[in-house]
Records
---
Amino acid sequence: MNRDIKAFIFDMDGVLLDTETICERTWIIAGKEFGIPEEESTVIFKKCIGTNKVDTSNILKENLASTVSAEEFMKRTSELFSQIETSEGIKLMPFARETLAHLKQKGYRLALASSTREPVVERQLRNAGLFSFFETVTTGDMVSHSKPDPEIYRVACRSLSLLPEKCAAVEDSPNGIKSAKSAGLFTVMVPDRIQPDCELSEKIDLLCKNLGRVRLIF
């Protein structure tokens, strides 16, 4: 276990907030409206977990070009997400608040690295009561390349004036783990929608079934 860690950099979607459950629902609903089978929508959705808007659009163009435009599909899923967020709210992932409070109390610095756009990240974190935990917030619209590219984690580490090897990334997705490992961080995976395969397991330094395990280990 790396005990030289000075900071934890968290992903948001699927790690702290249960947004990915809502996202998958919107993709299935929108897919049915555009005549896309549920299974196909789910497969494409999983490819997009952890990516920013630009890269999601490119993946959609590659997979849905003959059915619906990426712009139209994204516009519809955004409308559906807004409806669900307004009517139902967004649930916290298990142990999210307790783990952030524990790490902060232990003296670790906390930052966020999310592929989601800054206005959305700030709104959702504030509504969840988590925004004040973070010293810095790095979002998808602040970088040119989203996860699995390492750029966002390099920027997040620089925002803390720390070397990557002094930071741990907490991620739920393969794209996020690949991004953090390529940037040189200690990687903690808390799987949400996707379980790690053998190839990904080599890039994971610590695998936890939920955030409560992180709190017990650090």
Note: The two ends are 10 Å apart (CA to CA).
---
Amino acid sequence: MDAPVYARPAISLITEGLGPFDSKLYIGGLEGARDLSLLRAHGIGIVVNCAVNLDVNFVRRPANPEEGDLCATGFSDIRYYKLGMIDGGGSPDTMMLGAYYILHGALHQRLPRRETYPYPDGGNVLVNCRSGRSRSVSLVALYLHRQQPDRFPTLDAAVAHIRDKRELRPDEWFETPKPMLYDAARKASDWIDLIEGAKA
């Protein structure tokens, strides 16, 4: 049985003060992710798309236009990272671990001042999936728990905070996030302990 789907904001502010650029982190669905004016209004310069079955073409002025089987290429107006997780079972657990480090890297990157990197450092970040209810909730809960442990000492505390900020209602909690994605986030947190411990 699927949970009911309610109207909610296109994007929701979840937390702030992340990384070296003091970034804010938002969660949204497709409509928020594809709205460049909304992204600009919130200072969002980074989009991290969790969904394998959802592509957003941010390239507005192609350097190489579409030509037959050749796809268009070029710079987008924002930095765009695509993770490609499945909404449910089917993704290896390690994809959540990889997603955590991609999000972390996106927030910490310092870009060269060259023509081929037409982006400023920093900026706020939007993590999205189709509805902003499961894949993105799992990843952001993991990130908040690991990066702001004083505020979110457990994964459950982070999920509860996101449910409130994203306006997820109790009758949809059983799949916001879906149990297998929550479990992947829990396992990823354990792996992060091992990785960070080995680095120490």
Note: The two ends are 45 Å apart (CA to CA).
---
Amino acid sequence: MPSTTGLRVRPAAEADLTDLVRLRDDAARWMLARGVTGQWRPGELDEDHFRRVMAHGEVWLAEAGGRLAGAWELWWEDEDAWGPQPPVAGYAHRLMVDRTVTAPGTGRLLLDAAERRVAGAGRTRVRLDCHADAGYRVVGHKAGKPQPGGPPKSFTLMEKRLG
């Protein structure tokens, strides 16, 4: 995938697993430090989590100046949140940035890259199951979605039509 205004975006590999766990834990600590307690917790996800996602979906990394700047997961189905769906969407999960490396707005750039990847795969929608102010509209709610390494959580389901 081409550069996104100074970011180099690429698929994650086995060698990136430790960095992905660190990035996710750092993002969780950042949330907790700002009083966001209902989302992520450090230590919830390990290398096996990201390895499983890479086996059944995709994990993408963004690098800036040779350093890991952010990452996200891209799934091609998410029945736990959305139920059975026709293959029209990609599902963005765990969008995370390293705030010591990135500028404000980097998360939006990562979401733009995810949208391009989904469109490039011939799908017409990107769906999220979290709150976002990025042109996504609320299309439903899901209570009790199973979580890796923790209790079920409830989410707002969001979608953006591409093109």
Note: Residues 17-33 form the longest helix (17 residues).
